[in-house]
């Protein structure tokens, strides 16, 4: 069922979309949000539809970002558990310090991803890939152990990075539109 948009501009000096006051006769588009204040009804409806579509897309992107953030926490918890188990079963605790440091780093990235998803998830992907490669070089027998899980984690990270970038771009556009609403 198509959405019907009603556009009725009663005051041409006030933007219909963001409510910015002080538009002049020369302002075809609102300088703050880009709404076609003096455009055709079709242009105005198209603007409103695009804005709604952006909101829907951002909702879908938030789901992917949530999965990527959970992967960051998952890696943190796995490293923390292995670090704690390793420390409790050995006399040389220093061997498990890297797991504990990794756990702290990925926990930090998971928290950071709430505010800045793109750099946090991209950093997490980079660190994870470097860890897998480094461990594969040091212990070649680990290259194929857990390969399916490694692939799943990298795929979720890749989707997370792509959606994080699109989400931040959409959020910047939407924030710019909403700042004057």
Provide structural commentary:
The protein has 181 residues and is mostly helical. The longest helix has 48 residues. The chain contains 4 helices and no strands. The radius of gyration is 24 Å and the shape is elongated. It has a domain of 107 residues. Helix 2 runs antiparallel to helix 3 and helix 3 packs antiparallel against helix 4.
Jot down its keywords.
mainly alpha; 0% strand; single chain
Radius of gyration: 24 Å
Largest sheet: none
Number of alpha- plus pi-helical segments: 4
Cα distance spanning the termini:
27 Å
| Beta content | under 5%
Order of helices and strands: HHHH
Structural shape: elongated
Q: Residue share in helices?
A: 55-70%
- Tell me the total number of β-strands: 0
- Helix-strand makeup class: mainly alpha
Strand and helix map with partners:
Layout: H1 41-88, H2 97-115, H3 117-138, H4 147-178
Helix pairs in contact: 1-2, 1-4, 2-3, 3-4
Summarize the structure.
With 181 residues, the chain is mainly α.
């Amino acid at each position: 069922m198509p959405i019907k948009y009603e556009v009725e501009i009663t005051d041409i000096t006030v933007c219909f979309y963001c409510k910015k006051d002080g538009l002049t006769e020369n302002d075809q588009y609102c300088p703050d949000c880009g709404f076609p204040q003096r455009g055709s009804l079709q242009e105005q409806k198209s603007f409103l539809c695009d804005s709604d579509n952006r909101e829907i897309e951002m909702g879908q992107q938030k789901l992917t970002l949530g999965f990527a953030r959970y992967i960051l926490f998952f890696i943190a918890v796995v490293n923390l558990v292995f670090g704690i188990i390793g420390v409790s079963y050995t006399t040389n605790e220093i061997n498990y310090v890297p797991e504990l440091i990794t756990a702290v780093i990925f926990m930090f990235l998971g928290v950071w991803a709430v505010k800045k998803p793109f750099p946090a998830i991209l950093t997490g992907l980079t660190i994870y890939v470097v860890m897998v490669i480094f461990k594969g070089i040091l212990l070649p027998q680990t290259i194929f152990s857990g390969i399916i899980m490694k692939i799943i984690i990298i795929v979720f990270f890749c989707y997370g990075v792509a959606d994080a970038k699109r989400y931040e771009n959409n959020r910047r556009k939407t924030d710019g539109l909403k700042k004057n609403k």
